[in-house]
Design brief:
Elements lengths: L12 E9 L3 E8 L5 E8 L7 H14 L9 E6 L3 E6 L7 H6 L6 H20 L2 E2 L8 E3 L8 E3 L6 E2 L20 H5 L6 H16 L9 H9 L7 H4 L4 H8 L12 H6 L1 H4 L22 H32 L25
Antiparallel strand pairs: 1-2, 2-3, 3-5, 4-5, 6-9, 7-8
Helix pairs in contact: 3-5, 5-8, 5-11
Keywords: ATP-binding, Kinase, Nucleotide-binding, Serine/threonine-protein kinase, Transferase
GO molecular function: ATP binding; protein serine/threonine kinase activity
InterPro entries: Kinase-like_dom_sf (IPR011009), Prot_kinase_dom (IPR000719), Protein_kinase_ATP_BS (IPR017441), Ser/Thr_kinase_AS (IPR008271)
Length: 353
């Protein structure tokens, strides 16, 4: 039987600068030739993805199911393929990452954090209602649509997401995500579901109120132990002005037993969020009428910058170790043999699910 004839069509997009680079794909800015509208295009190399096509099909299935349904979820605009590549066209979010935007504010109060968390929880409730578990919620995947002050906050990066069959009990088994935001059940490999997103929201909330994550440790092993035991505390230096409702909200999410963890809809009804109006856009920069609220920005920014500096130092040491190992594995001709890498920031899933 002869091979199917490949039909080519004129490309509707012109790609521009690179926005991000991954193992299998490059994300580029692109303009739709007919309309002049700008988008983000994920260009996936077919050859590099050979044997792992299920990962891409899953991401497309997820984005198709949820696109255009919620104002705070990055939407899939188009999908097509050529001889060598697959292309996923999504909205272009140019407003920057959540925490970078917070650090540029003049004021930042607990109510601002509550408004942001409520936006995220509302979007996650929508995902869960449609049978989607994100599995990699973190501040870096919360982007603003535009640089405007009233821009929509968007949940992005559905590369690790999964469609879960809502008609029957189903658990996911693969270890994946970003370690500091991963729930205990993921590390235990005992099966996990939508509740891992709620744990991640607990970590994000802690981070938004303090500038550091609850399980920060000097070693990966200690961090994992802390996560498995939900071992964290509220340092009075940073938490004395944070309300009991906020801490209770976090406690009800950072619970080891996923069945005891709040669902997205329960979280929306929690006193800390229930009294906050649901806004689809970024929190305001003006001080609240209630002058009793403490401006959190100074210590949040300080802790965030200290954490970022520490991470850069750790990354530099890891890079040095890897380069040293690589050089030791060079032969006389200078060819480099593969060397096992250290743990990536994001643990990708295999093809077993």
């Amino acid at each position: 039987m002869s091979a199917a004839k490949i039909v080519t069509v004129p490309c509707k997009y012109k790609t521009g600068k690179v926005l991000g680079q991954g193992t299998y794909a490059t994300v580029k800015e692109a303009v739709h030739i007919e309309t002049g509208k700008f988008y983000a295009v994920k260009v996936i190399n077919k050859k590099l993805m050979q044997g792992r096509e299920s990962m891409i099909k899953n991401e497309i299935n997820v984005l198709r199911r949820i696109s255009q349904g919620h104002p705070n979820i990055l939407s899939l605009v188009d999908f097509f393929e050529t001889m060598n590549n697959l292309y996923l066209v999504t909205e272009l979010a140019l407003g920057g990452e959540l925490f970078d935007r917070i650090c540029k504010k003049q004021f930042y109060y607990e109510k601002d954090a509550a408004e942001l968390v409520k936006i995220v929880v509302s979007a996650v409730a929508y995902l869960h209602d449609h049978g989607i578990v994100h599995r990699d919620l973190k501040p870096e995947n919360l982007l603003f649509r535009t640089p405007d002050e009233d821009a929509d906050l968007l949940i992005a990066d559905f590369g690790l997401s999964r469609v879960m069959d809502t008609d029957k009990f189903q658990m996911l088994m693969t270890t994946c995500g970003t370690p500091g935001y991963m729930a205990p059940e993921i590390f235990r490999k005992a099966g996990h579901g939508k509740q891992v997103d709620m744990w991640a929201i607990g970590v994000i909330t802690f981070f938004l109120l303090s500038g550091y994550t609850p399980f920060d440790s000097e070693s990966n092993q200690e961090e994992v132990r802390n996560i498995l035991e939900a071992k964290y505390s509220y340092d009075p230096q940073y938490w004395s002005d944070i309300s009991k409702h906020a801490r209770n909200f976090i406690d009800k999410l950072l619970t080891v037993d996923p069945t005891a963890r709040m669902t997205a809809h329960q979280a929306l009804e929690h006193p800390w969020l229930a009294s906050v109006p649901l806004k689809k856009t970024a929190a305001a920069v003006t001080p609240p009428q209630d002058q009793k609220q403490q401006d959190l920005l100074p210590h949040v920014r300080q802790n965030f910058n200290a954490r970022r500096t520490f991470k850069r130092a750790v990354d530099a040491v890891r890079f040095g170790v890897r380069m040293g190992s690589t050089l030791k594995n060079m032969d006389v001709e200078g060819d480099i043999r593969p060397v096992s890498e250290g743990p990536d920031q994001v643990l990708k899933q295999d093809d077993s699910e």
